[in-house]
Specification:
362 residues, alpha+beta, five-stranded antiparallel sheet, 22% strand
Length: 362
């Protein structure tokens, strides 16, 4: 299986399967001399790990990261720092229940990658989906934590802004609120409504989709390159690579189709000797290059395909069948996609920072 790497100058390669011994990633291209310990990574993994509320899968994984290479500590470094060599991060799997999947070893789950993996490779790991499992995203979050070390002065935050048909009220937006509820929701009133709504979804054995918004503040103007190295192009690729992601928009996104030219254009005025935009329909990116405004990306996550309602399918030998997916699954996988979206934003920005430095020199 190819294409397990992401990035150019700052690059990660992830490895491992949902029910294997361990998962992890190798970070290549990280500059030397950056302070990095396991504690710097663990906090971000703790945001993503399963079993933290009744609204996520009850699989109990500590997601404890181990740094196997790429750091060094001696009297001169004044602490543990990166060496510029590949950084290997490993997370052991400790709560696999492969027997939960024995009934579907020869059946294709509708909505999952079972059929397509089998069609491509002639073999598939039916235990939780193997590499196609959202378990793989823990590796991205670990790599994203390293990327944040490269992004000094840049602040990345994510939030869940829609669950099913229920959206946040942006007049109630409070970034501090995302740590006060299990949904990473910036609207306390919406979070309360979502709790009741998701209780019903969960108890029925069904699932629902969601929309995640990720915002990066402090990105200077000038990152990205025209034509085939656009910053928004790479961000779109990053967010679409997340498991269950089905759509990406930047700034006004699809809403721009409803705007006139006068409404969509982000007008500019000089304020204190610097250009200042009066709106941000562009999402902080113009012509594929950052404008200095907040970079705003949203991606839509489909409902978890593993549900208790019988679905029509076929077997590997071509027989019609019905299938119920047992096991422990997220009623809304979009919740735990929030820290994953943050990590992918960090990975892209770290890569573009190094690419900008390589071309421009600052």
């Amino acid at each position: 299986m190819s294409h397990n790497s992401f990035g150019h100058l700052f690059r990660i390669t992830t490895f491992g399967e949902s029910h294997g011994v361990a998962i992890g990633c190798v970070v290549d291209g990280c500059p030397p001399g950056l302070a990095l310990t396991e504690a710097d990574i663990q906090g971000f993994l703790d945001k993503r790990k399963p079993g933290q509320s009744k609204y996520t899968t009850q699989r109990q994984e500590a997601d404890q990261v181990k740094i196997l290479s790429g750091v060094f500590e001696d009297d001169r470094t004044n602490g543990q720092v990166t060496t510029g060599t590949p950084i290997c991060l490993m997370i052991e799997n400790t709560d696999q229940r492969s027997k939960d999947y024995s009934d579907i070893r020869d059946k294709y789950r509708p909505g999952h990658a079972d059929f397509t993996y089998d069609a491509k490779y002639g073999v598939r790991d039916y235990r939780g989906g193997g590499r196609s499992s959202a378990r793989e995203t823990a590796s991205r979050v670990a790599g994203g934590a390293v990327a944040r070390k490269v992004l000094d002065g840049i602040f990345i935050r994510g939030a869940l802004v829609q669950v099913g048909p229920h959206k946040v009220n942006r007049d109630n937006w409070d970034w501090n609120e995302i740590n006060n509820n299990p949904f990473f929701c910036p609207d306390a009133q919406a979070a309360s409504q979502w709790a009741d709504y998701l209780d019903g979804i969960r108890k029925s054995g069904s699932s629902i989709g969601a929309v995640v918004e990720v915002v990066a503040s402090g990105v200077p103007a000038g990152w990205g390159a025209p034509v085939y190295g656009k910053l928004d192009q790479d961000l779109s690729s990053a967010m679409m690579s997340i498991n269950a992601s089905k759509a990406v928009e930047i700034g006004a996104g699809f809403g721009a189709a409803c705007l006139t030219g006068e409404e969509n254009a982000d007008q500019i005025r000089m304020v204190d000797g610097k250009p200042q935009f009066q709106s941000n329909h562009a999402g902080g990116i113009l012509g594929g290059i950052s404008s200095g405004q907040d970079i705003v990306v949203r991606f839509a996550v489909k409902p978890t395909s593993s549900i208790l309602t019988p679905r029509k399918s076929v077997t590997a030998d071509g027989q019609d069948t019905d299938i119920i997916t047992k096991g422990r699954h997220d009623p809304c996988v979009g919740i735990r996609a929030v820290p994953v979206g943050e990590a992918m934003m960090a990975l892209v920005l770290a890569d573009h920072k190094l690419r900008h430095r390589a071309q421009i020199g600052d």
